[in-house]
Every structure is written in structure tokens, then in C-alpha cells.
Amino acid sequence: MSTKLPTKIRVLDTTLRDGEQTPGVSLTPEEKLRTARRLDELGIDIIEAGSAITSEGERQAIKLIANAGLNAEICSFSRPIQSDIDLALACDVDSIHLVVPTSDIHLQYKLKKTREQVNEMAIKAIEYAKAHGLIVELSAEDASRTNISHLKEFYKAGIEAKADRCCFCDTVGVMTPENTTQIFQELKKEIKVPVAAHCHDDFGLAVANTLASLRGGAEEFHATINGIGERAGNASLEEIVMSLISFYGTKLNIKTELLVETSKLVERLTGIPVPPNKAIVGEHAFAHEAGIHTHGVLAYPGTYEPITPEMVGHRRRFILGKDVGSHAIKVMLKEVGLEPTEDELKQVVNRVKELGDKGKKITDADLQSIAESVMGVIGEKFVELNELTVVTGNRVTPTASVRLKIRDQEFLQSATGVGPVDAALNAIQKVLGELADVNLDQYRVEAITGGTDALVEVHVKLRRNNQIVTARGSASDIVMASVEAMLAGINRLLTRYPKK
Ligand code: MN
Predict the structure, then answer these.
(1) What are 43-58's pLDDT values in tens digits?
(2) pTM, rounded to two decimals
(3) SS3 sequence, the chain?
(4) C-alpha of residue 198 to centroid of ligand 1, in Å
């Protein structure tokens, strides 16, 4: 199905403003700059870098971003107050996102001002910003709960004062796709400057509503990476972008193959985990478990994949569980140089299914060790732990020293860390540093309920260039479990297994 949308659609990314307003998220200026560079590389048209009024650190960040020589227009959030605009100007931004509450609820309870007073503040602010050379995007906050004729008057007065663009904010996420299209069509009849949509996900409709706004004539949309943002979040940028490209044939400047990488960077810096089943960028977005599905995908990916993982920089994964098929296992083992006979393969499949029935998730490393033991292959271990010593306490910097055997040589290194696990893993990475470029992408502890002597399971995800492996370690000692997981993953990544 193809529906006509405006030919030119601009993307405003507000990961660094609305996204950073996610409860518990706070980025340093350097982290914000790093994110902005990535967003620029991704091809974002406008980066809302923050809100200059917030703090000294925030201003530092916005200024760094504004002076980083990026292609994107750099924008600061601003209230209709002269001092806000002055602070934005001091950060050298190109534009302000001038946000003015327009609903009765916001006027009465938040601002305690009349509509006339607030509109006058808006006009003054626009005139002041324009006189100082700023591009002005005039946002009606809580527009979705504002009387439509008030809203039109507000925008028209703003445009008369030379606002460059207008934005309709569904601040509390209460629109539906139907009334969104309708209201944008209505607005576009009279508003000739570009109109943007800013949608929130309180009912899980932010992406649908954003698409509906574009169908109604919006020429710009606001979104965040991973859909992070206040409460249930903002519209998710990667979902809108891929929908526009896939269903509407829209041409955007976005380099879609950077979407997953960008998502991961934002996940890491904000500490807000991406749910595994999240569309486009989630860990399982291109993962297949059921036997029939895997078989289909291996024969022809289009059977169960609407877009290719490569398009968004993702990768296809086969998850092993009780539903796994022997075909998938055969392909996965072949990738690591193991080619079991039919009979051996059957045994491997049975063991995987047995574990699956017990509710276990089987990692790549587990599969390999199962296959090795079935096939009687003694994998030559790349690295082995000979000794580990950790010192920690309230009066010492946690320090670890490790003695690792790599092939036939022994290496000794020590490192400090924020805690004993960090120190131990740092020491291992120090040894490996010169030998292999292995990154720890994810570290997760699964505490198994019980006393302090209970078993702890540590899951790690390691990456070396484009190769990713997951591995697990379990021990009663969290440091040992971590080290075990790390070394299992490293061996999985670096060992060349003898072909049978
Ligand atoms: Mn918002």
C-alpha cells in the first residue's frame, strides 16, 4: 500500500532533551556530544541538544554540540522567557524549540496565567529570538487538549511574528491515528509554514500517530532513539523511519544501517535497556527460535523477516530452546567449524531440547561445548585461568591480579576497578589487550534465590569486530562466575576448532 505523504520530511531528534528527561537519565557533556555526533552521522536534520536553562553542565553540552561542526541544525528547548532565550543564544545554537502551553489545564494549573498573557509572552519571545538570528520552532504544549480555534489563532499569531515552523505536541499521548490525521489536515489548510508532530507513547500509539500526522500533511516529526522519554516515552525514531521507508516509500536522509549501533550507544549511555522484543532494534527483532521458522529463514529469509537485518545494522540470530530444529543447529555448528555426523547431530539436538525443557536458554558457547562433548572434540582452549587474587574492602581500591595461560605462555597482570568484578575483568582485558580486541558489550547477573552462598549466574556478551558471542558462568562466588563467563566467551571467540 502506498499513501501519499509530503515529499520532504524532516526529522527532529529529541533523545538529548525529551529522551534525557526519562526518569533517572543524566548524561555528561561528553556523552551528549558523542550521542550528537552519532545522530549527525545517522542523518538527523535537527538535533534538540537539551534545554539551556537546565544547568551549567547542560549548557556546556549544548555549546559543545553547537560548535562541533555537525551538519544538523542544533536546537535548544526554551520557554517563552527572555532569559531562556539568552541562555540558548550563549550556547551558540541555530534554533530554539519554543514550547508554550496552550491547553486550559496547563494554563490554569501550571502557569496560573490567562491565555492572553501566555500568548503575549510567546509573541515577545518569538520577536526577541528572531531579532537575535535564531530559527524558531513554535510548539503548542498539550496541543491535543487545546481547543482547535485557540490553537489556530496561537499558531497564526506566531507566524505573523515570524516563527519559522510550528509543532503540535501530543504531550500526554492521548491522540488516535484517526483524529491525528484529521487535525493536521485541518491545520495545514491555514498554516503555510512547516508543521511538526511531537507524540508521546502513553497508549503505545506514538509511532502510529506520528505516521498519521504525516498523512495529514505534517512535514517534520519529533522522535527519540529507542523511544525513550518522559513516562512511557516519545515516538521511537527507528520505528517511524523504517515504516516510512517500507510502507510509504519516503526518502529520508537517514543511514538506516546505523540504527542498531545508535540504539546501542543510547542504551549504554542512558542505562535504559532496550526490551528484547522492541521493533527494529531489539535483541530478538531478527531472532528465530521455533524449528519451522528457522528452517524457513535459512531457506529464504523473507519467509519470516519483513526487512533484512542488514538494512538496520542488525544481525540474524537463532535462539536455541526446546523448539530448535536440527537444521539450525547444523548451520550454527558449521559456522564454528564443527560438522557432526547425522547421528551426532541427533544427539546434540536431543541434549539441547532436554535443556530447553528444563527452561534453560542455551548460549552459543553452551551449544559448542555440547557438540564438542558429543563429538569428542577437545577444543584447544585459547586462554585458561591459572590464578586469580582479588582484594577489596572499604579502605582499598578494589584490585585484582590474574595469571592467565595463553597457549603455552603465562601472563600476569593486575588492574583496579570500581569493585572486585570490574577489577578482575579489567585485569583479564589488560592481558588480552595486546592479543585480541575483545569488547564486553553486556554483563548481567542472575542471582539465583537463596542464601548468600547460592549460585550466581553471570551472562556476558562479547564482541570482536562483527562477531558476537554470549557465554555464561556460574559459581557461588560472583567474581569467579564473572571470570568464568568472560573466559568462556573469549575462548568461543578466539579458538579455532579443529575440523573433524
Ligand atoms: Mn515531550
Answers:
(1) 999 999 999 999 999 9
(2) 0.76
(3) CCCCCCCCCEEEECCCCCHHHCCCCCCCHHHHHHHHHHHHHHCCCEEEEEECCCCHHHHHHHHHHHCCCCCCEEEEEECCCHHHHHHHHHCCCCEEEEEEECCHHHHHHHHCCCHHHHHHHHHHHHHHHHHCCCEEEEEEECHHHCCHHHHHHHHHHHHHCCCCEEEEEECCCCCCHHHHHHHHHHHHHHCCCCEEEEEECCCCCHHHHHHHHHHCCCCEEEEEHHHCCCCCCECEHHHHHHHHHHHHCCCCCCCHHHHHHHHHHHHHHHCCCCCCCCCCCCCCCCEECCHHHHHHHHHCHHHCCCCCHHHHCCCCEECECCCCCHHHHHHHHHHCCCCCCHHHHHHHHHHHHHHHHCCCCECHHHHHHHHHHHHCCCCCCCEEEEEEEEECCCCCCCEEEEEEEECCEEEEEEEECCCHHHHHHHHHHHHHHCCCCCEEEEEEEEECCCCCCCCEEEEEEEEECCEEEEEEEEECCHHHHHHHHHHHHHHHHHCCCCCC
(4) 7
